Amino acid sequence: MKIGLQISSFTWPGGPEAIAATLARIARTADDVGFDSIWVMDHFFQIRGVGPVTDPMLEGWTTLGFLAGVTKRARLGLLVGGIHYRTAGLWAKAATTLDVLSGGRAWLGIGAAWNEEESRGLGFPMPPLGVRFEMLEEMLQITHALWTGERGSEAAFEGRHYQASRLLNSPQALTRPHPPIMIGGGGEQKTLRLVAQYADATNVFGDGPRLAHKYAVLREHCERIGRPYQEIERSTLQNVSVSADGSGATSSPAQLVDQLGELADAGAQHVILGVRGVEDISQLELIGTAVLPRIRGL
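Predicted structure:
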């Protein structure tokens, strides 16, 4: 099993002046103790369930570039990008840039998006959900073409929502055949179909039984189009707090290992942890010493 870290809040002591130093300390610690991946959200306002809308929020691709400079081994990605925030060709170009500058450590995380409040607030046109799914599929087609060969297919693309005259990508990504594509969301008719057809990984929320069900639906989509189900990495985001004794509302290392084992039994291969109070890096250090060595064989 792989373990990732999602950093979803930047409301830390010291205010905006301290964000860069705190973020660097968190990322370096996660990288050093053995986390396989580090992720940030693709939001511009803080989201419900994490904090007030006015809490600090950093733009995702810029933040990943910063993380590439302060880490050495963990893969980096958005969990996950909102399709309508950027034009289709920019997604592959941004992920390629991250891949080149990080030494081949980029993920391309993408989804149909949902946060109308921030879109309207900052003036991003937000088409209806069905249209966003059409945009997402065209973007995935363009991305695969841009990651073809040494400089992209260089062909034209004529879609309903996007038109491109030359799909040129230079420099090409270091990761071959291309940086892995993760599609976020558990929609059974559209999202998981797109995962089966275009992606290298899926990310869904929920407990063990819910994950098992979603993965079973994904398997059905794969069988329908003739793709091996095992080609797709199955991940999930889980929020945790960890302490040595599991006091209060925290989990002990043993309890977290058990939780991860249940997720593995459900089919999860990559668990991305949202660690509450992550600025207390002792939690990451504890996970590194007391959890990671015990879950690698799951």
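Summary: The longest helix spans residues 16-33.
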